[in-house]
Amino acid sequence: MKIQDNGIWTLIYLSIILFLMDSVSAQLLQVTDVNINPNTIWLNENSGITISARCRFNNSYITNAQVEADIKSPGGLSTIEPLSFSNGKYVTSISNFLLYFSETGTYTVSITCQYNGYTATKQATFSAHQLELKIIREGDKINAYMGDTLDIKVNFRLDGNLILSSKNDFRVRIGDEEVVVVSAIKSDTYQKITLDLCPDGDIGECMGKLPEGIYDLKVTASSSGKSVSDETDRYIKVNAPLTIDINQNEIVCPVNTLCEREISVSVKFPIGNPDTFTKDDVMATIMGNGIFKQVYINGMECSSGVCTLNLNIPSTLDPGLYDLFVRFSTSSAGNNYDSQVTIPLKVVLQISGQLVDAAGNVVGSTISFEDSSTGQVISTSTNSNGQYSINLLPGEYTVEIRFATSAIAKFYKLFLKLFKAFLSFHCASSQAT
Description:
- By secondary structure, this protein is mostly beta strands.
- The protein has four domains: 6-129, Immunoglobulin-like (Sandwich), CATH 2.60.40.1940; 131-239, Sandwich (Immunoglobulin-like), CATH 2.60.40; 243-347, Sandwich (Immunoglobulin-like); 355-432, no CATH class.
- The chain has two helices and 32 strands.
- The longest helix has 23 residues, at 6-28.
């Protein structure tokens, strides 16, 4: 049987020739001994990478080939780096990997060797990971009480994913003192770390290491054999075991009047029960203007860490600004604890009157007193009967009266003082517009 079509045989012959040529080319030039160091990059460490390889031609290693590495990220970004011959191999180094890439995942490196008209390529891979840690700051600062636990929040992630961590994965420092991590619990968006500032219960020793004050916070977290840290300034306020705060800004009492006032005090006492305090555990005193007086406590009730004190402010105080000191004291396990806070006490002059015109008609107005020494302005308005009332400390004032008719009257250097139980006014000048 005779085959007429020689074209098919020609194509088969050419294909065989090309295959043999490629095989010979591959055998003549090869990329060998590819090495990537390190094989795992940690982006948070700002590390570098070194790529090396060798080129072999006719089973002999060559030193004058043209070699380059095409590094491709998981997202498809790439850079081509030339390799130079050194110490028996072709090498390139990237000292700062983050200048080129920031993605996590698997990277592909294609190393191409060109020599004597031949080309050979070989691929290798390496991975990139990133640890991230961020302290979640809640407000300007948080309170820590010696003898109690403290919760802080962090965002600890590996390659963008929140890590399920244990307490052993965290180290925490408040100031220069390392504190005990009790637990670490993962939520949907953060990890909550519970700390104990005094795990052995020796409050005195613990307060010696970490006295009351405001401290920096530093957290170090570990995963996959790597660590990352974050810190924030002046965030932790360390308090004594017994701490009290008055839940109001000031106390105001009229002069020559027995002033009975209630104040609300928040009590923090983690090593005991704050609701067991009685008025016998509390002392209140007034200081200022050469005066030192003890305040009688009519009674006190405590519930849910808040104590309400009923105080009798003496009626014999002259008008002025005083400091009211409140001190709580108790003992526990043979140790004495106390805490003191101060609140301003204003003994004021009560000024009241009525504004009417010459015909006796009520005049609506706003009256403002500006303290000449502090610049503080206190205002009041007349009611439907033209009456007004305002509490002021003794001193020098500028008084402005704004009438409903848009007229304004000003009085300068108005001096207020109490002299032998009578209120004295003296005005140096006035102005009306």
